[in-house]
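Minutes, project check-in
Item: structure for the 74-residue chain
Input as provided by the requester:
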Amino acid sequence: MSLLDSEAGKRRLLSVEIPVIERYNEGRDPAFQIRLSRLGGTLVLRYCLKPGHNIYQLETRLVSSYPTVPPETR
């Protein structure tokens, strides 16, 4: 079941994955919210983390064959 190509994957994305991200973003500072975008057949999550004094900008790509293929984080 690929997340972006199959009907079951799209239903899971809309009913499970996106509501979890929306709940995570509730009440957070806008700079530290997860932003979603689609790049071709890839779903891209952009977010910032601040584990100490430094802010890290990260990007996680969920390829079209996710969850079979693990996500790539840079």
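Outcome recorded: The chain has a mean pLDDT of 87.
No further action items on this chain.
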